[in-house]
Every structure is written in C-alpha cells, then in structure tokens.
Design brief:
about 425 residues, alpha+beta, Cytochrome Bc1 Complex, Chain A, domain 1, 6-stranded mixed beta sheet, globular
Length: about 425
C-alpha cells in the first residue's frame, strides 16, 4: 500500500509497504540536479554526490562503506538533470541502519578540502572515460542540437575544466543551500512498519538544515526552446551512432500513457515496428529502440540505433519511411493491445524489485505531483484507446519537429542533408 506523509520540517515521505519480502529499499531524494546549476556551478551537483561518501563527524569514508557492506546491503547514489538520489537496499531488519547512514551522509558531510582534491582526479577520470563511449558522446551532442545551451542539454558531470575549477568555499555554500529538509523526499519500499519508519526518520532528521533550497540560476526550470538539427558529426568510432527525436511539451496524464503505449508499439520491444522492419527485415543494424525521457516541464521521445557508415543513408531513409507509415497505416488495434499488454507485464514484473518500487514513487511524484498504486497505473494503461494513440501520433510525429544526429564515421553514404519528409 502506498502512503504519503509530510513531516513538520517539510520532508515528504513516500512509502510502499510490501509484506511478502525480506528486503527494504530506502532513498533520500533532493529536488535539484545539473539543470539547477548556474554557469559557475557547472558540475557541482554531481561532484557533491561523490563528496557525500567522503566522511562525516560520525563516520569516515571506510566506515560509511563498511557499515552497509557488513549487513549485505548496497549503498549508492546518482545525479540527474532534476534530481539527486542517495539510496540503500538491504535486509529489512537493518532499516534503522539505512536511515542513520543516509541522514548522516547527506546532512553532515565534512566536504573536506583534502578529499575534494583527491576526488577531482576520480571525477575527471569518469568524464574522460565517457569520451570512449560513442553512444554517450553522440547523445550529448544530440541534446545540444535539440536544446542548444539550455541547462537540460548540459553535461551532468560538467567538463574537465569545470571540475578543476571547483573550490571548497563555493562547493560548501552550494551544499548548505541545496541540501535542506524542505527539498528532501524520502521514499521507501519493502517490508517495514510505516508508523515506526515515520518516527525513525523524524528523529534522525531533527534539528538538521531546514528551509527551501536557494538557487542561483536564471534558467531554473524554464522549459527549453527547440532548435533544428540535422547533421553528421564525424568521430573516431567505426559505427555511426544515430539519434532521432522530438521535444514534447508538458503532457497531461492521458497523453503520458498514450505516449507510453505508442512508444512501446513503435520501438521498445523485439516485436515493435522499428525492430521488425529495420533490424529483422532490412538487417541495417544490430539493434534499434526508442525511449521516453520525462522531465518536470517537458519530455523527449528518442530513437537510437547504430550502423556501418555505408548503410547510414539507407537506414535513415528506412526510418523516414516508418515514420510516414505511422500516418498512412496507423497502429492497429492489435498493435495497441499488444503494447498495452507489454507495458502491463513489465510493470507487474517490476513489482518484485524493491529498489524499482522505491524509485517509482519519486518518479511519479516528480512528474505527476502524486503517486499511484500499481493497480491504478495498470488501469490507466487499460483505458488507452487506438484513437488516443492516433492523436499522440498526429501531434508528435511531424517531420518539421524532428531532429537527427549521425555521430561517427569519417565518410558516410547517402546521408540526406535536407531532413525527414514524412
């Protein structure tokens, strides 16, 4: 059962109690990410995520790791465009340990100068490692093409120069202004007693930094403006990475679910249209898929594949033909029903993973402003009709709205410089 509660200090609690498991996953989520940084703070959110593992007055770096490791738990964190998360998944009998470690890390970090100097090397290595991943390099270039200099298109970790410029005073100020209780949501999924967990979290956070986060960013949460991009960016990789996609404004709940069904039918499974036509029938790639990325004020629908340089022209032409076919031969009732069944089955399977359940609570709250029971989500999928999907197709699949980037390969064949014409 999903429950929500707000503590006196403004912390939002989201709980998904599951009796038939011996596992619990607990996450501390802050409503800020790389999108919320000013130009002089580029990379701060990600770097600070690293630093909160580097010791508090209560625990040093080793003790933070050891305390969770010795009960068989897993402690991790990640930074996104709009959220930063620290989470722990462990046996249910050790939930109080997870609360203690996470609250200690996120609110009581020393942010020591010597640790900052060491961690710069680690993060720079992380950034440089990404330069050897053509898929990631291509996606970053694709985002810059579609959204220009908007914060959503900035690299989450920043560039090497951004990391080298980080100084303790500025980072500490950033930490104290962002990591405050009213910007915190705590999500838990698994076997626990909700009332007892409310008391445990309230006690653990008592007297810690309150108030709303202070952000110095003139672009804070302003929706991006779309730019036209259709280009080949030469690179060192043998394969050419291809991203094609469209930026979408904020959608209501029915449109979100219609988009999910559409995306599943078009390219999220081996039986989808794109996979069957471009991979199976034409053998133009090893894999092709699509995905949706949801933000608080917009979303992005993207197709990704890679192919040999000499096949780029044929593949893009085939992609154009499939987009045209979506208008000439709309998704059939059978395709829509199969996509709905696929989504429902995937959702049911995900219920077995407590970490996935925990993250789902925040994803729904962040995008929709509320959480839903699994049954409600399944019912929403059921309500999507063929007409709903056709409406999403006509609004979204428009050639003048699409961007495309072909990344890699010094010479490619048959690349149409004029864009899609579906």
């Amino acid at each position: 059962m999903v429950r929500s509660h707000v503590l006196d200090n403004g912390v939002l609690l989201l709980f998904d109690e599951v009796r038939v498991t011996d596992v619990v996953s607990l996450g501390f989520w802050f409503d800020h990410g790389s999108r919320d940084e000013s130009a002089r703070e580029r990379g701060f959110s990600h770097f600070l995520e690293h630093m909160l593992f580097k010791g508090t007055k209560k625990r040093n770096t080793f003790e933070i790791a050891r305390d969770v490791d010795r009960v068989g738990g897993m402690l991790n964190a990640f930074t996104e465009n709009e959220l930063t998360c620290f989470y722990c998944t462990l046996p249910k009998d050790h939930l109080s340990l997870a609360v203690d470690v996470l609250s200690d890390m996120v609110f009581c970090s020393l942010v020591a100068r010597e640790e900052i100097d060491k961690e710069k090397s680690v993060v720079i290595n992380e950034i440089l490692s990404s330069h050897d991943l053509p898929e990631q390099m291509a996606y970053e270039a694709f985002l810059k093409g579609i959204w220009g200099d908007h914060p959503l298109a900035q690299k989450i970790a920043g560039d090497v120069g951004d990391v080298r410029r980080i100084e303790r005073d500025a980072l500490l100020s950033f930490y104290r202004s962002r990591y405050v209780t009213e910007d915190l949501a705590v999500a838990a999924a698994g076997n626990f007693h909700p009332d007892a967990l409310v008391e445990l979290i309230a006690e653990s956070l008592q007297g810690l930094r309150g108030g709303r986060a202070v952000r110095d960013n003139g672009n804070h949460r302003k929706p991006p403006r779309r730019f036209a991009q259709w280009e080949h960016s030469r690179g060192r990789s043998a394969q050419v990475q291809i991203y094609a996609g469209v930026s979408i404004g904020k959608e209501d709940l029915p449109a979100l679910y219609a988009g999910q069904v559409f995306s599943s039918a078009v390219g999220e499974s081996m039986s989808s249209r794109l996979f069957q036509q471009i991979r199976e029938k034409l053998a133009l790639c090893y894999s092709i898929s699509c995905f949706r990325t949801l933000y608080s004020d917009c979303s992005l629908w993207t197709v990704f594949t890679s192919t040999k340089p000499e096949q780029v022209g044929r593949l893009v032409a085939s992609l154009n033909a499939e987009f045209r076919r979506l208008h000439e031969e709309p998704l059939s009732p059978t395709e829509v029903d199969d996509a709905k069944s696929f989504l429902k089955g995937s959702l049911i399977l995900s219920k077995e993973d407590m970490e996935v359940r925990m993250k789902r609570l925040i994803r729904l709250q962040h995008v929709l402003g509320r959480v839903m029971e699994y049954e409600e989500s399944l019912n929403y999928i059921d309500t999507v009709t063929t007409r709903d999907v056709e409406g999403f197709t006509s609004r979204t699949i428009r050639n003048e709205e699409f961007n495309l980037l072909a990344y890699g390969g010094r010479r490619i064949s048959g690349f149409n410089e004029t864009g899609f014409d579906f």
